[in-house]
Each structure stands twice: as structure tokens, then as C-alpha cells.
Amino acid sequence: MLVGKPLGTDERHFAGADFDLSDGSVIAFHTPALGPGTPTARDDRTPEWLTGVRSPAAGTPLDELRDTVLASSPDVGHTASGEILLLARTRRLDDDRVHTWDLPSDPAIVATARSLVQRQMAVWGLEEAGFVTELVVSELVTNAIRHAEGPVRLRVIRDRQALICEVSDASTTAPHLRYARTGDEGGRGLFLVAQLTQRWGTRFSDSGKTIWTEQDTQPPA
After folding, report:
1. Beta-carbon contacts of residue 154 (< 8 Å; ≥ 6 apart)
2. In the chain, fewer beta carbons within 10 Å around the N or the C end?
3. Which residues lie below 8 Å from residue 92, measured CB to CB, with a gap of 6+?
């Protein structure tokens, strides 16, 4: 078990760790109780109820693992303590579902980035998502060149029901969503990205940051 800073605290500094996980591995993220009157000191011991997700049978659905945890500790998930359990399972994507391009930090490369994405959307049969994807990539690559440090890495990922776009750079400055006024000449790019995609966010690494967006590719039922 790796012990880090509890979620929900204002402790911003933390140490990163890398792990090699096989396909189908189950990851359990646990935050101990942090409710009013609860000590904030960290307890490095694994909660007894968490042992139920240590060695699950291969392919066991995550909701079944969740039910196992709740059955072994009825108080978990039903108190105001702030205790949290997040379960995730690793899944390897085929190589043809992930495409990455390293781009120079040059404003002229934005048009190239749009063309690369447009061609990949055609290969995947996602032409309907092409316009929005090109606009998103254009905004993110432009921001990376204008406000961050190069080089820039562009990656698109086709999941089962989603299309993920990632733009990475060497800066650790997080972008901020702005609400531009009528007379402002700029400041609408990230707001536009947020409106056109279902989800977006930022993650950090030792070499910089990555801004990602997610678009649903399944037609509405």
C-alpha cells in the first residue's frame, strides 16, 4: 500500500510513484475519515475492510467488489465521516487506438495538428466528431505554444465510447477557465473547449502537465 496525502486536505505537496500494472489489475484508492472532530493524522495501516479488494477473482465486476466492501464494513459509505473508496481497473488499449505526435513549439504547427487529427478521425470513422476535435486540438495546441514551454505532444485516444485528446507541454502552470466579457478580445478558448466536450482536466508529471478532454462518441439513445 502506498500512503499519500488524504484527499480533501489542503496539503499540496506530494511525492509521485510509478508502478507497472498488468492488464486487468484492480486499483483501490482510499481516503480515511476526515469529518468534523476526526484527527487528521495519517494512519499507515490498511483498513480491515479494505482487505476484501486485495485479491479479487479475475474479471470480478467492480460493483461486486464494492458490495463486498460494504458487506464487510456496513458503516463504510453510510456515515458522515468523509471516508471514500474509489475502485478502478486497468485496461490495455490496442495500439491502433492511440496515436501520438511530437510537435515543435511553433505557431505554424497548429494547422498541421488539425490536419493530423482530421486524418485520424477519418481512419477511425469518426468524421462527425472531426470538427469539434479539430477545434479543441487547435485551442489546446495554441495555448501550449503561447503560454507554456515546448516541445508539445499531441495524443488522441479512441476508447469504447469516448474520444480523448491530450496536449502536453513542459510547463507546470495550470490553465484557468475564464468568462470573457463582451468586449474582451481573448480568453474564450478554454471556455469553448469546456462547452464542446463532456469532460476536461489537467494532470501533472515530472516533466510538465497534460490538458485532456473527453468527447462521447456514442449516439444518444
Report:
1. 100, 101, 103, 113, 116, 117, 137, 141, 165, 166, 167
2. C
3. 23
The domains of the chain are located at 1-92, 95-216
What CATH number should be reported for the domain whose range is 95-216?
Answer: 3.30.565.10
Supply the pTM of this predicted model: 0.71
In which region does residue 24 sit, left (phi positive, over 0), alpha (psi from -120 to 50) or beta (all else)?
left
Distance, CA of 142 to CA of 213 (rounded, Å)? 15
- Whole-number pLDDT of residue 185: 47
Closest to 178 in 3D by CA, of 199, 194, 155, 163: 194
